[in-house]
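User: Sequence in, structure out. Go.
Assistant: Echoing your sequence, followed by the structure tokens.
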Amino acid sequence: MNPMEGYLLDTNIASAAWDFGSPSHNNVSQRLKELGDAIVYVSAVTIAEVGFGLLTAPCIDVQRQSTVRSAMSKYEVLFVDQHTAEEFAEIRAVLFRAHSPKDRRGRLTKRYVEDLVDRTTGKELGIQENDLWIVSVAKQYNLILVTNDRRMQKIIDAAEYSDRTVNWN
């Protein structure tokens, strides 16, 4: 795939940008303005995650949902395809080689990213499958990934994508 110039927003950043009621909205909006004419994308995974949140959040009124959906529609969406799947498979394999428990024969004993454990601390990594897809989209298109989710760092490290990731706290 040819690299694109631009940024890919993680779900937490996109949600703050789209939801005027979010405590992070003003900060994220200001940072987006500072990007100037840069192209800003979201992944289809982010659209799905935010859509799910809107459908299951009882405290968000109809007007606020409508405002979020309107803001969502203004972003170019990058879809998951076979090239994304190749990136996903490579990153996931790196994560499993590094963090999955193995039996005596060296075979993986866990099959879900949610079960991966830091070998040093014994703590679960807290990785979510959707975050792995989002990093895969960013890597596929060589976009700068914008996030404030610290739990994504193991995925970013596995993808060797730290130099193309910015954290907007």
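User: And one key feature?
Assistant: The longest strand covers residues 40-43.
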